[in-house]
Specification:
With 343 residues, the protein is mostly beta strands. It has two domains: 137 residues, OB fold (Dihydrolipoamide Acetyltransferase, E2P), CATH 2.40.50.140; 181 residues, no CATH class. The strands form four sheets. Strands 9-11-12-13-14-15-18-19-20 form a nine-stranded mixed β-barrel. The chain has a five-stranded mixed β-barrel with strand order 2-3-4-6-5. The chain has a two-stranded antiparallel sheet with strand order 1-10. Strand 16 and strand 17 form a beta hairpin. The radius of gyration is 21 Å and the shape is globular. The two termini are 42 Å apart.
Length: 343
């Protein structure tokens, strides 16, 4: 078995690929950054507030010579959820930054901590501690809001979210039949183009999204909408036996049929998936035999939604693989919208 998953490290052959980061092609695995933490200080000269990642340009004095450093961080929705709005990042401010160094680009960091001109420290990713102050803004976010969901009695049909924006992941060791190849340059180019155009990846990887999603009831079918990596998720789940297609055309999201096991439990089977990658963060392939079985289980108080996905792909895996996570009701929220999409 080989260590991977929807949140795994990048295979060495991909690490060797040159990558020049721009606003259009900032989609990649975080393994292009080392574990080395570097600090810089300088003037914030440019802010690209867009998807798939926010980019800050900092002008640094290096032995009497000016050099521009690129600082990469999460997308606008992630930072908003962490309480870090665009207004905090003011061009012309002198800032201090700490982050992981890029493997190929000498003046580029994946941002961990940022000190603003007024002395306020920001935690730009989950799981980091304040570096310069006793307290800081950001990090894991502010927790789950509370709503009287039992009185509302909307069941599954609402927006679901998580206080910590981390993607769903399968187990660290997956039962591949053979060592999976990485996607290489072709995969990187395709992911960049999809992100720039706000086009989604396919099943099952699209359900790795850490962002809010919504169920809408249309009677004979359910619409699942959301956002992932600067792209719209828009799945149709057929829950009535009438009108089902005998041989539906394969598609990026596949063909999903659902059934209510109880009022609080929906089971969904998805077949006919036309998407080449099981792990979109690494470009690891899947076959056209792949199928996904999902369960969405609502708690009695309608506050929590437990999710499980079981994937079968006999050409890729020697056995089924499973991922689980829990979502919470998100009152007042709506699925995030993509921004800065290419025409």
């Amino acid at each position: 078995m080989y260590g991977t998953g929807l949140a795994a490290t990048l295979i060495s052959s991909v690490l060797a690929l040159p990558l020049v980061l721009t606003a259009a092609n900032a989609h990649h695995s975080f393994a292009i950054y080392t574990d080395e933490i570097t600090e810089i200080e300088g003037e914030l000269v440019d802010v690209h507030w867009g998807n798939p990642h926010i980019l800050l340009t900092v002008r640094v004095d290096e032995a009497g010579q000016e050099a521009d450093w690129m600082l990469e961080t999460g997308n606008p929705y992630v930072l908003q959820r962490r309480g870090l709005p665009r207004e905090l990042f003011r061009q012309g401010d002198r800032i201090r930054a700490a982050g992981r160094v890029h493997r190929a680009q000498a003046a580029q960091l994946w941002l961990h901590n940022l000190m603003l001109g007024d002395g306020q420290e920001l935690l730009m990713i989950a799981g980091v501690e304040p570096r310069w102050n006793d307290v800081a803004l950001g990090g894991d976010g502010s927790g789950v809001p509370v709503a009287d969901t039992a009185a509302q009695d909307r069941g599954l049909f609402r927006v679901w979210s998580r206080p910590v924006l981390r993607p769903i992941a399968f187990s660290e060791e997956l039962p591949y039949r053979q060592e999976p190849p990485s996607g290489g340059a072709e995969w990187l180019a395709r992911m960049d183009e999809l992100a720039a155009r706000c086009e989604s990846v396919g099943m099952p990887g699209v359900m790795a999204t850490p962002y809010p999603f919504e169920f809408r009831n249309h009677g004979a079918w359910i619409r699942l909408t959301g956002f992932s990596n600067n792209a719209v998720i828009d799945r149709t789940i057929h829950v009535s036996g009438a009108g089902l297609e005998a041989a539906p055309e394969p598609s990026r999201f596949g063909y999903s049929t659902g059934r209510w096991v109880t009022d609080n439990r929906l089971e969904v089977t998805t077949t006919r998936i036309d998407w080449p990658y099981f792990d979109d963060s690494l470009g690891i392939p899947q076959s056209d035999l792949i199928e996904a079985f999902e369960t969405f289980t609502l708690s009695d108080d309608q506050q929590r939604l437990d999710y499980e996905m079981i994937v079968t792909d006999p050409d890729t895996f020697t056995e089924t693989v499973t991922a689980v996570r829990t979502y919470w009701v998100a009152p007042g929220e709506s699925p995030a919208e993509p921004t800065h999409c290419a025409e």
